Amino acid sequence: MTAPAWEIWVGAYCAKGEVGLTRLEFLPNTGELIKTAEYGGIENASFLKMNREGTRLYAVSETATYDEGQEEGGQLASFPIDPDTRKLGPGQFHPTHGAHPCHLSLTPSEDWLAVANYSGASVMMYPIGPDTRPGPPAIRFRHTGSGPNADRQEAPHPHSVFFSPDGQFLFVPDLGMDKIIIYTRGPEAHEWSAHDAVSLEPGAGPRHFAFHPNGKAAYAVNELDSTVTRFSYEAPGKLVRLGSISTLPASYSDESWCAEILVSPDGRFVYASNRGHDSIAVFRIDEQSGELHASGHVSTRGKTPRNFALTPDGQWLIAANQESNSIVLFRIDPDSGLPIYAGTELPVIKPVCVLIR
């Protein structure tokens, strides 16, 4: 039986006139990755999202200024996708009113989109219309605070945005504050407000976040101290910190910084990427206690794996090696959860985000 092809989109750190978005097709029966289209017109497309119907691609343009330096901050871009040809149409751009937007997320109902402005110390929220286009920015949350790392935590640095499975809460890991800030949705259409916050170890630098498929646990990957922190999520909008585990081998002592974290679709494993050690760390989730146990580390066969993605069936992992300009394919071992190199690599300039549809 022939398995259907997966559609892959890759965002890259590139200038506006270079290739910032690449479309691939992955053929699981043969393990082939095929480059089908390349697009310019967006600078530093560092994170991507797509609506469920696959008709619109959203991206952040991670810049300090745009329009040749005339405007401060970055931009939110959205591109219509032709449902038949899968080609991108002309982009629509909105300001993020903050420098270096680095992550974005859609509510499950796809009526709101949030953007984290890393250097702008803020989160911007955009209503999404019935036509899937973002409206002008409607809500802005500003963060204040700092952490003990003088070089990296001199100010707030919201690094990502994640909605709860029910779409009622927004979780914002702030690397500069060592906190995850939580916002809640109100009864009115345009009402969001501060709800709670949970602190991490001083100097941890929380970066990205992931819910367990059961909706009762969550995990943060901490960039600065190379750890994963586990939380319980038994009450709506309330995280309880339970403990942390290193993403690095005990024998490794050089510099390394975490980047991405994902939970396997079957809820058995947690994956985190290390930039420096240049690996994917794999953790088994204890069925009884929920604790994480290190299963091993797998080289991404390149430098600086800023991002990686799992296919929705959990059988494949695709890693983006930013500094070695490569996309690398791995098959997931169903028993150990470890990624196994599948023999497929594809050259892509400065890839920093992988989106699988």
UniProtKB/TrEMBL annotation:
The keyword Ion transport does not apply. It comes from the Bacteria. InterPro entries: Cycloisomerase_2, Haem_d1_sf, Lactonase_7-beta_prop, WD40/YVTN_repeat-like_dom_sf. SUPFAM superfamilies: C-terminal (heme d1) domain of cytochrome cd1-nitrite reductase. GO terms for molecular function: hydrolase activity. It is an enzyme of class 3 (hydrolase). Keywords: Hydrolase. Its EC number is 3.1.1.-. Belongs to the cycloisomerase 2 family. PANTHER family: 6-PHOSPHOGLUCONOLACTONASE, 6-PHOSPHOGLUCONOLACTONASE-RELATED. This is Lactonase family protein. It comes from Cohnella silvisoli.
